[in-house]
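Structural prep section.
Before we set up the soaks we want a predicted structure of the protein with zinc ion in place, mainly to decide which crystallisation condition to try first. Input record follows.
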Amino acid sequence: MKIILFIKSNILKSLLCFTLLIVSFIILLKNVFSNYFIMQPVYSKAISNNLLDTISELAKEDEKIAYLTFDDGPTTSITPKILTILKEENVKATFFVIGKLVEAHPEIVKMAYEEGHYIANHSYSHNNSILYKSKDNFINEIKKTDIAIGNAIDDDEYCSHVFRFPNGFMSTLYKTQKENYLPLLKEMDYFYIDWNCLNNDSMGKYSNYQLLENMKQTSKGKNTLVILMHDTKDVSDSSFVLKDSIEYLKAQGYIFKNFYEFIDN
Ligand SMILES: [Zn+2]
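Run finished without errors. Recording the tokens verbatim:
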């Protein structure tokens, strides 16, 4: 009996030692290989697994939802005016910022972020000939912009997860490159989004009345609106029609959201 117990306890000891050995080996491997993955960015927020499905399903929602988006900022002349109106109207929006402008005006990005707006990525240079010159350029422009945003808001792991191609994915400019680079976005844990409603401020030729009419026309019959405006003075100043635009949409029963909707905290 004693012999059997002795054998059993030895077997148990051996099993225990073996398990410890395996666990130590796994920990060792993890530490060694973590050096190889250190270049992989660690995101403070994870993208929702269902995100891509959610985006493609956006337009099928029954609820009337408006996502206000402002491209090409931040600028000292327009962005603060937009922020003031959004605060007065209690609306949270999304800003597709240009990395080099974030570096120039980090305080505006910080203000927008702290007021609850989503800071999304619109490339570093907004210059197609640089952005699409190579895959490396494309990746670097997105990462440099995230770093600039991260510096502005004191989050060195910032990833916006949301990209808008300059001129939009739907534009025929650099179409082949844009299509070829889609897997790169996915690898970086990014999705892209265009818009389905706009006031055409970028045409720079419409009166305030016409800007508002353009938005009303392009919103017709759509439950989900991703609305394109700009917060740069290179185009018509959308801040003049923002209040009326928001009030019109509220009267039509829309509620306002931004892209935090799609990010797991
Ligand atoms: Zn743009």
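Observations: Residues 76 and 212 are 24 Å apart (CA to CA).
Flagged for discussion at group meeting.
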